[in-house]
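Limitations

Structures in this collection are predictions, not experimental determinations, and the ligand pose is part of the prediction. Treat each record accordingly. The example that follows, with NDP as the small molecule, is included so readers can see exactly what is and is not provided: the inputs are given verbatim, and the output is the predicted complex.
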Amino acid sequence: MAINNAYLNGVYEDLAGRYPEQTEFLEAVHEVLETLVPVIEADPRYEQQNIIGRIVEPERAVMFRVPWVDDAGKVQVNRGYRVQFNSAIGPYKGGLRFDPEVNLSVIKFLGFEQIFKNSLTTLPMGGGKGGSDFNPKGKSDAEVMRFCQSFMTELFRHIGADTDVPAGDKGVGGREIGYMFGQYKRLKNEWTGVLTGKGLSYGGSLARTEATGYGLCYFADAYMKDNGKSFEGKKVIVSGSGNVAIYANQKATQLGGTVIAMSDRSGYIVDENGIDYKVIKVIKEQKRAALKTYLDYVPTATYVEGSTGIWTVKADIALPCATQNEINEESAKALVANGVIGVFEGSNMPCTPEAIAVIKGAGLLYSPGKASNACGVLCSGLEMSQNSERLSWSFDEVDSKMKGLMEGIYATCAATAAKYGMPGDIQAGANIAGFLKVADAMLAQGVC
Ligand code: NDP
Ligand code: 2IT
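Predicted complex:
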């Protein structure tokens, strides 16, 4: 759909003409640009200095070969990426995703989102993202280690504690970060906080594992309370059963909700008594097994093949925590028909544009991932601070900072939306507030 401003629309059309195959990236850019119309109209400097034309092009994108040897002695090759999108407000910062779906479009969409998300955290972090089409599923620890070492053997020359600080994302958890950190240290002969999400014995921050899921619930709670609602007594759907989903379940439950459905790539489970996040931890973090094995531990649960049906489960709150475009128009309509009060995004870009239109059109509360999942990178920023000062903060210290900052992000999004004439539109507020800090830094730094 055309954007209602000639300059913004022109930049978008130009981008769409240049990268027609990068559908995820174009979706993410369109979503941001269409909310920036009042900002561009209010301040002519952004157009004069072509801030939008510059912000949609990564400062640098590295693509490389990742050869490794599997357990059978066969030489395998994967593709590696690091997109360093914007460093106006700090060193590039963002996760690494290992998943067969990874390509330049996916990494560019994630890197683009990260610019605004990191800005919203209020910490000095630029935007970047990387990863590989390597599939960790079904690989032995030794294979994952050899892959991570090979990946870092190229990546190390492009990153650094004051240059670019990667972390985890889908398919990259503590195990992978450990192997990559070890290889970086070996290659550089220096110990720096070049990765976040590290283990607690070597510079990791307490609460980083829990951060994204907890922060999602802190954000959703603040947003709901501002609208006279809360998690108390509500049924909650949490899609996914990985890092974000597990700790979203734990915090939503602590806040009085009951998580009745969770999913993985193969299907979803339902249990009206509440799904025990500790069992999911055992299945997914320790055994790396399928979600349907939950029924072996908790026989009251039921399992349904296929993951998209999770949005038809009758509940009050939806927390998508799996992947991009997991809620399409049909799923959004099912959520609305079931009387859901809000959709708060834990994953990056889980709702398609059509789904967002349905959700907002029906008057549901809606928060975009770049605001409501910002706590992962926010805690990564706190890990960087602890590494720099050679100190470790307590769990409670980190957790209370996270809660305060996530509530602050909600307040900023709400205030910005109101200021630009769209009260209650947290999506617009997030995009505008995230944009303004970066754009003003770019203006101050001249054409670069
Ligand atoms: P994990 O790899 O730990 O977990 C991902 C979960 O989603 C798994 O249960 C996986 O199923 C499921 N899943 C993955 N792909 C699909 C798919 N195509 N269809 C259905 N289900 C799928 O990743 P994270 O929890 O770290 O990340 C989840 C989302 O949150 C991503 O969008 C990520 O970008 C975002 N995010 C992550 C942050 C972090 O700190 N980790 C921070 C902010 C956002 P299976 O178990 O079968 O693999
Ligand atoms: O999407 C994200 O914000 C992340 N995967 C976390 C990035 C980070 O640097 O901690």
